[in-house]
UniProtKB/TrEMBL annotation:
Keywords: WD repeat. One of its GO terms (molecular function) is protein kinase binding. The keyword Protein transport does not apply. Residues 1-86 form the BEACH domain. This is BEACH domain-containing protein.
């Protein structure tokens, strides 16, 4: 099954938001793609929180909001214009 032309034309925009350079920083703010701070990878070290109530509260927040995926791309890679290999 092939994806629609619309999806093919816009898939890179979704990748930029979820895994790419629009996940954090000024590009994320401009794209209205920001989330609660503790949902980002590495934002909170739960093991370092001594106060059990505070730790459980943060665990609950993360559980309810979810976690933002790892940011895989800090900049948008340039698309290769080379022809795909022939099979």
């Amino acid at each position: 099954r092939q994806e629609s032309e619309f999806v093919s034309d816009h898939l890179h925009e979704w990748i930029d938001l979820i895994f790419g350079y629009k996940q954090r920083g000024p590009a994320a703010v401009e794209a209205l793609n920001i989330f609660y701070y503790c949902t980002y990878e590495g934002a909170v070290d739960l093991d370092a929180i001594a106060d059990e109530t505070e730790r459980k509260a943060l665990e609950g927040i993360i559980s309810n909001f979810g976690q933002t995926p790892c940011q895989l791309l800090k900049v948008r890679p340039q698309r290769s214009l080379a022809s795909p290999p022939r099979l």
